[in-house]
User: Which sequence fits this backbone?
């Protein structure tokens, strides 16, 4: 029997805490009996939650007590200073000490970033962690980073993002030479800023599979496996995409409920509409990786429901299985050695 | 009878030149008989085009010869230096000398920006032109700028964008106090970069109707009338939106053609699908304003068809009618005077 996988869940994080984390955990365990999930948080609350969910005797679920919790609007600095026994911090400590293989949290992003960095430390050669996720494309999906961890990035940071994204795509998709794009705008002569141009040069001179500049619409075309950008731009692109998808879903709903005839056609089109909704359901894409740390940390959307949070746990399982941080660190080592040779 | 409106059309610009510009012009004239359209470009080609379209005797259409044209991939500096008789430059000259009230071009954005700036000059108090357009929202639309003219912007530029966007929204929508947002990301403590924070301060201290930070998804919610950002971010947001909308349209098409049953349901849902397609049809939103110039310049998408190019002409007509540049300049003057008083 292969070694089991243990994931620490910040059970108090996110907008809903145990209310979402417990059912998500139960549902993941039903599909992954080899996994152990540590519910980190208030033990009284969690015991009661498990009982209510009829999951008290689930052998894959264990409670690990933590007396505090990080608020969703708490400043990262305050979380670091005052919440040493928060469910988030304790879950990360479990990863640090090797009790857990990964941590999943729907808690406040800034605090999770800062605490992860403080507890787990960065991989050698990586300056900053980056938030990375797979976005749907007309083909399969596109890995995009950074999505909001780093507001201002220089060319070297973008290069590190390319490297980490490439390793992640290789590990998760089994794609040996993921193609990489640098997000840019297409106007001539006013094309790009200095960081972007310099990053493109760095990546194209490395042995990464650099494909060229990607424009905003390339994210969803699927012609690039990995697209890198600074966290400000990435976050705006991500949120803008959500906004467009929501607006379109709203238009469709409105049009189909306009009159009895359109309502009838909606009924007939139901299977199609369901498939459509599923294809753009952001819950299916929940679970962003905090890359560059000495450990696996997955950030779930704060407002995630059980289905979405379950997907974030599955991302963690996959990254543990593929040993993502080790792969990044191995790649970095080879890269640094080659750099010395040159 | 009110004074007629004259618009100079860069008839050779864009991917299709007269092939698109002539039918667009004919169709706009059918709805706006008070307008005169000057087709600027190769007179032999344009005469032949008018004849082929049966529009040789249309009193609203006049040809104005220009011997050159700016290529779509030509560098702005080259266009400025070598294309003094290009259809683009001549059309802008017609605005400069007062023969035309506005210019519409589907030509290369960089060249149009540079040539407009050179020929028309900036309004006093405005440092750089900005590209602004109305994007659809669940309510009505959101004016967004800059969409790609200025890759790097400081707080003062963003403030000027807010001012120009506010005047445009007021003029076109008859909205006296348009609400203004500064595009930003929502993460705590890593919130925004310095320019964005400083721009927010400048706008909130002015008498513009500052509402707060807008995130990417706010563009399509319709809670802000005007959203400002630098041209890099704006261009990425715009292109990303196009990408999402295209991907979704593709998903829907695929799902509806999956099997005979879904094809039948598509047939029944046709009116709804048509309404949906219309609601997100980017051609309806074609025609971006180059704001901040001493004259009205409208940039059409390079790949615009006649419907889309016609919409760009209509944007020009509307801005002429509302006297947008004068309004911006009046507002600026009042603003500068108030600033002196303080």
Assistant:
């Amino acid at each position: 029997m292969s070694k089991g996988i243990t994931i620490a869940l910040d059970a108090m994080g996110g907008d809903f805490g145990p209310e979402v984390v417990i059912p998500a955990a139960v549902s993941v365990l039903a599909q992954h009996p080899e996994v152990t999930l540590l519910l980190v948080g208030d033990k009284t609350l969690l015991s009661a939650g498990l009982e209510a969910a009829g999951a008290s005797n689930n052998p894959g679920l264990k409670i690990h007590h933590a007396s505090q919790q990080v608020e969703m609007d708490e400043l990262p600095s305050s979380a670091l200073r005052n919440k040493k026994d928060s469910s988030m911090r304790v879950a990360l400590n479990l990863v640090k000490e090797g009790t857990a293989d990964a941590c999943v949290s729907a808690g406040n992003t800034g605090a999770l970033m800062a605490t992860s960095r403080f507890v787990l430390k960065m991989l050698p050669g990586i300056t900053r962690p980056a938030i990375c996720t797979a976005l749907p494309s007309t083909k399969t999906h596109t890995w995009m980073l950074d999505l909001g961890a780093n507001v201002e990035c220089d060319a070297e940071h973008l290069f590190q993002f390319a490297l980490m994204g490439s390793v992640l795509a290789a590990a998760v998709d089994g794609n040996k030479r993921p193609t990489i794009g640098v997000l840019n705008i297409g106007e001539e002569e006013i094309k790009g800023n200095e960081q972007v141009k310099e990053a493109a040069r760095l990546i194209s001179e490395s042995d990464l599979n650099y494909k060229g500049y990607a424009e905003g619409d390339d994210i969803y075309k699927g012609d690039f496996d990995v697209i890198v950008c600074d966290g400000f731009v990435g976050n705006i692109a991500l949120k803008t995409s959500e906004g467009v998808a929501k607006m379109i879903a709203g238009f469709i709903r409105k049009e189909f409920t306009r009159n009895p005839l359109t309502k009838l056609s909606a009924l007939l089109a139901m299977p199609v509409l369901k498939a459509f909704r599923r294809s753009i359901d952001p819950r299916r894409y929940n679970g962003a990786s905090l890359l560059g740390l000495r450990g696996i940390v997955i950030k779930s959307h704060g407002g995630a429901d059980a289905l979405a949070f379950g997907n974030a746990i599955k991302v963690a399982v996959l990254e543990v299985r593929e040993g993502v941080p080790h792969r990044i660190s191995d790649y970095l080592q080879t890269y640094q050695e080659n750099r010395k040779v040159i």
Notes: The first helix of chain B runs from residue 18 to 31. The first strand of chain B starts at residue 5 and ends at 10. Chain B has twelve helices and eleven strands. Chain B has two domains: 1-126+292-342, 132-283.
